[in-house]
Amino acid sequence: MKVIDLSSLAPPDVIEPLSFDDVLTQIRSNYITACTNAGRGDLVAAIDYPAEPAAILCEVAAYREMVLRARINDAARARMLAYATGADLDHIGAGEGVERLTLSPADETAIPPVPAVMEQDDPYRYRIQLARQAITTAGPTGSYVYHARSADARVRDVSVDAPAFARRELTPEQRTAAGLPADSIVLDVVRDAGLSNPMPGDVAVTVLSIEEGGVASQDLIDHVSDALSADDIRPLTDRPRVRAASILHYTIEATLTLKPGPDPEPVRQAAIAAAWAMAEQYSELEEVLPLSAVYAALHQPGVIAVTLTSPTQDLAPGVGGAAWCDGVEVSCG
């Protein structure tokens, strides 16, 4: 089952574009019609003067209608998976049987009390999308991803792969020489999916953690492995093999040439913030970080040129890997 990219969806028609000027024009037109029908055409000219009570009331009415229409838009968004946040998203998840995970429980005995730290909206939203793929024991990728993500709130991303094998054709003489039964099957590993000693039925499940450095701890790997091995989740012939992601560490080091101005620091800080945001965007499993994205992030308004020291090429973490930024150092030349 395909997972739809919610960000690629066109804005829904039920969400109305809002324009104060358009609403004010409509209300003024209604006012003119009402005055004319009441035989008070003498009051019409008053709305052309901003200080007149009629003009002020038209603007107040337009503002109140804008507030109401905006509230209707917000209510519509709150019922859509792509836009819902907070408690609204919790209710959508409840309809799919998906609860928000707890990163750390509340501590009511602490002074002051410590609230629970809950799963953020975006990963929770993605799990809700995957929920229907979990209703199977046929072993599709989406089912493994959903159950792995739902096993522990520390899971940031999951990739699923499987080794491939090819049957080796042997002559009777070769079977005899190797001491193999006549009806035996010999398989060669065509692709190991990053597993050591892969066997038919193996499923390679790679886990990227939200914890510092992205490396999943053994405790997290055990949690995910236990969840995927449950009898009501694991297909009978599958053997999930959970592993931590391999991390490709890098730093961003650059020098900016700026347009003449009073203070370069705001531009430098904007470039640093954009670089961190870009690094976050490209930190998912098996996501290639193109060098062009680094340049684009650093090239903020006010920057004439970017001299990039690190990285020097596209970063491809490969199967089961993720690029992880350890730091951003930006100076102004």
From TrEMBL:
Boundaries of each Baseplate J-like C-terminal domain copy? 250-330
PANTHER family for this protein: FELS-2 PROPHAGE PROTEIN
Q: What is the recorded name of this protein?
A: Baseplate protein j-like
